[in-house]
Amino acid sequence: MGEEVDRVEFTRADRTAFRGQVHRNLDAFARMLREARFAPERPMTGIEIELNLVDEKCDPAFRNTEVLSAIEDDAFQTELGQFNIEINVPPGQIDGLGLDTMEASIRDSLNAAEDKAARTGSSMVVVGILPTLLTEHIRRDALSTNPRYALLNDQIFAARGEDVQISIDGVERLQVTADSIVPEAACTSTQFHLQVTPEAFPRYWNAAQAISGVQLAVGANSPFLFGKELLRETRIALFEQAADTRTHELKTQGVRPRVWFGERWITSIFDLFEENSRYYPALLPVTSDEDPIEVLDRGDTPALSELRLHNGTIYRWNRPVYDVVREKPHLRVENRVLPAGPTVVDTIANGAFYFGLVRALADDERPIWSQMSFSAAEENFHNAARNGIDAEVFWPGVGTARATELVLRRLLPLAVRGLDAWGVDVAVRDRLLGIIEQRCLTGRNGASWQADEFHRLYTKGSHGRKDALRGMLRRYRDHMHENTPVHEWPVD
Question: Can you list the residues of the chain whose pLDDT is less than 70?
Answer without folding.
Answer: 1-8, 41, 43
